[in-house]
Amino acid sequence: MEATSRTFKDNARRALVEPDLQQALARMKAGFVVNRAAAVGRLPEFDALRDEARAIKNHTLAHLDFYLERFEQMVTAQGGHVHWCRTAEEARRTILEICRSVGAKVVTKGKSMIGEEIAINDYLAANGITPVETDLGEYIIQLRHEPPSHIIAPAIHVTKKQVADSFYATHTNLDASRKLEEPRALVDEARAMLRQRYLDADVGITGANFLIAETGSTVIVTNEGNGDLTQTLPKIHIVTASLEKIVPTLEDASTILRVLARSATGQEFSAYTTFSTGPRRAEDLDGPGQFHVVLLDNGRSALLGTELQDILRCIRCGACMNHCPVYGAVGGHAYGWVYPGPMGAVLTPTLIGVEEASDLPNASTFCGRCEEVCPMHIPLPKLMRHYRERAFDKGLTPPLPRLALALWAFLAQRPRLYQALTAIKIRVLGALGRRRGRFRKIPFAGGWTRHRDMPAPEGRTFQRMWDEAGGAR
Amino acid sequence: MASNAAGKPRVGLFVTCLVDLFRPSIGFAAVKLIEQSGCSVAVPRLQTCCGQPAHNSGDRKDTRALARQVIDAFEDYDYVVAPSGSCAGMIREHYPALFDDDPKTAHRAHALARRTYELVSFLRDVRGMERVDARFAGTVTYHDSCSGLRELSVKEQPRRLLRSVAGLELVELPGAETCCGFGGTFCVKYPEISNRMVEDKAQAIESTGAGTLLAGDLGCLLNMAGKLKRRGAAVRVRHVAEVLAGMTDGPAIGDGADGG
Amino acid sequence: MSAAREQILATIRRARGRDGDDATFHAAAEQRLRQPPRGTIPARVDRPPAALIELFVEQALALSATVDRVASAADVPAAVAAFLARENLPATLRAAPSPEIEALPWQDRPALTVTYGRSDGQDEVSLTPAFAAVAETGTLMLRAGPDHPTTLNFLPDTHIVVLRASRVVGPYEDGWAWLREAGAMPRAVNFVSGPSRTADIEQTIQLGAHGPRRLHIVLVEDGDGR
């Protein structure tokens, strides 16, 4: 998908005044945040499990080649295929080849962030194959020709009226006077419309929350059942997953699953958590005839052994963005690409370059809420700061802030000069501000005073006053 | 260096640039409280800034230079105390990692970090203060500044000490742990987003009906006070040290000499 | 082997910065696969088997599944017939061709039409066994195989599961232990926690998104199997 992360500031400005989006964000905060807290409150072992989850992923990353090779061995032993893809382009071509091998016309899709990352839908469509999103949220945004705005609730920004409008416009074979006012009616209609698509599909593509080295299994975590229908009914099941999704054993998956749904939606477990292993067996009565795992690198292996490695622990729960005050103010589209919120602020510059996405790691107060709720203990502010350092070293900071910062750093490293100059400036500002106690306008400080007053300084510096009081040094 | 002959620990006050420049009375309140807790206080002259602005802007070189300056200035004290969670957090949580390539400085940074505390945490957790001898007639509400809360676990300590202030009624702020939108340079780099955050915060503050807002970080306080004033709210804003030290005679943050 | 595969693996190995014996370095990983360690098991499942069954029922009900408890397998057809009548559903079942299900006394309920096999999307009600049930979260563990086609779990509007009480375990890990004992990994293991649902429209929960709208569990109290 075409990234608009470069225009984050404009995106954000527009988002702040969109009433539907703001209402949706308020609902999200009341929902996900409250529900996660309740779920965590009901599981005394939650923090111990987070520590274990982090340890499992760190161990896995230290032995990544070993576990990936074992995974491949197990998949192949079951009659499945693993396709290693270095880039998004290789992944797209691989998927197309597999689809063409059975003359596929229609492909159903379960939700896959990797699918978005490699922009598979547009590619398939351009090659004469129709992709049909089956996750209700993904289906809605597919109809609206929009990208997802949240990694687990892709249509979180859409109101029920907007959904109804899309359905009226698209499902033209239905009675135009039917009522679509309530979510129940919308869900029922989507269910009915998609049912035949599941049955007609030649190929089903799902993502994977986990890959299991021990058994060669792939795991999806859903609530709707669409991912299961997508993988069970067609001739071919393709799993798109990036390398770092791998975990060693079934037990390891269970440990991490205990913190996944709780962190994401506040559920203890999703309605459907499915472990898929290979194609249908000779004696099975249903299931796909072929099983393919498209294993994508696209920049992950390059993170190993670097300061950014920790982002590879992300299990895509969305807790960080649910709790982020910046995401909560501007929503997901402002971030301009596939991954929004705090994890997106780290992953986006990683995948599309810090020049394209430099605003993302900058648009944070480092309040630390994301790291606080991350089930995998990813130090997100530290990783964002790392990108700020990269951007600074590359000279990507705009000239005025860079100059102001350099001036501040220059003075601060020369305390006597600093103290002499500041004493003067503060005296002036203090005198100007004494009566009212604050300024409505200050030259060069428009960013501040446009929205708030600036309290006036008291007028003397502490250092000077301490000298005068004969305080100990 | 050991404590002085009387056995009193010697505290180096890290003033912070904002307190030094904008509101020295917070510094004096901090001194009073630290002395009340049974320590002597000195203020090293050669201090300016902890380096956060450079650190958060990705300017590692200047951050290290400022950190060295702080390490040099504060080497000789038993404790280093700052009336700011973000500055104390910078020293405590971030200084050591700045010197991964320089074991000697890293060692000194670790030694400094171990001795550095946010003010109220120092009073409660290190000096064991149970109460203060102050009075304050009115309702206050308290905002948890992010660094103090998440880096230094400052949460219960200010509330405990505030409850010991005679006449003071503490009412909890809804969303007390939600960021106020200051974030250092964030508030001028992303002014609209910052504005939304501080507007939400101001609404929450006003909803408590409290007469005074307190917090432990002057950056947050300037941000919130500026917004409350722009909204015409009657809420007064002070640093928690001012109330705990019983030094609330002067104008509150953003208030004129006429008190409004 | 593909160039992509080699390049990716080479990048990973280079990042580790070790030369030397890959086999000894990966000994810890080999060991982990040989003897998978368990993580922290929630204390809520630390209770006797009978109490685990109660926990399972409590959790399943909270997830909007419905539960019928019967004394023995002989009572299952009557319970199923009564459920279908209650819910105004047709007396037709598409059932999993499992010995356990086929052995039930369906002849006691001649008005019920039971056919066996996979679903092709035309069935309103399916009936399957359960490999196990996880009391920890009120979750059914369904094991695909010739006796349990996966389509029965997802296509019909109503899914009825016959669960023997002796198959209820506490934590997920006990379910994996049983699964390993039962042979090779099946094509699919479905963990089912209540009916299908979505909150994609204005965060309001709606049941029956694509999978079954109704999940009904007939719990056969055949003892706790310990």
Largest beta-sheet characterization of chain A: 6 strands, parallel
Using the coordinates above, name the CATH class of the largest domain in chain A: Alpha Beta
Give the helix level of chain A as a range of percent.
40-55%
Instruction: Domain count of chain C, please report it.
Output: 2
Class by alpha and beta content of chain A: alpha/beta
What is the gyration radius of chain A calculated from CA atoms?
26 Å
Output the helix-strand order of chain C: HHHHEHEHEEEEHEEHEEEE
CATH class category of the largest domain in chain C: Alpha Beta
- Overall pLDDT level of chain A: 95
N→C terminal distance of chain C: 49 Å
Provide structural commentary:
The complex is a heterotrimer of chains A (473), B (260) and C (226). Chain A is an alpha/beta fold and 473 residues long. Chain A has helices spanning 8-16, 19-41, 46-62, 64-77, 88-101, 113-117, 120-126, 136-143, 160-170, 183-200, 226-232, 250-264, 319-323, 325-330, 341-352, 359-362, 369-373, 380-393, 399-412, 415-433, 446-449, 462-468; strands spanning 81-85, 106-109, 130-133, 203-206, 210-212, 217-222, 236-242, 246-247, 272-276, 290-296, 438-439, 454-455. Chain A has three domains: 43-302, NagB/RpiA/CoA transferase-like (Rossmann fold); 307-393, Fumarate Reductase Iron-sulfur Protein, Chain B, domain 2 (Orthogonal Bundle), CATH 1.10.1060; 402-468, no CATH class. The mean pLDDT of chain A is 95. In chain A, strand 5 and strand 6 (217-222) form a beta hairpin. In chain B, 47% of the residues lie in helices and 13% in strands. In chain B, the strands form two sheets. Chain B has a four-stranded parallel sheet with strand order 2-1-3-4, with helices on both faces. A four-stranded parallel sheet of chain B has the order 6-5-7-8, with helices on both faces. The relative contact order of chain B is 0.14. Chain C has helices at 3-16, 22-25, 27-34, 49-62, 76-86, 99-102, 151-154, 172-181; strands at 66-70, 92-95, 113-116, 125-129, 132-134, 139-143, 158-164, 168-169, 188-192, 197-198, 206-207, 214-220. The N and C termini of chain C lie far apart (49 Å). Chain C folds into two domains: 1-37, no CATH class; 47-220, Rossmann fold. The chains are: A alpha/beta (473), B alpha/beta (260), C alpha/beta (226). Chains A and C meet through helix 2, helix 3, helix 4, strand 1 and helix 8 of A and helix 1, helix 3, helix 7, helix 8 and strand 9 of C. Strand 9 (272-276) of chain A pairs antiparallel with strand 9 (188-192) of chain C, so a sheet runs across the interface.
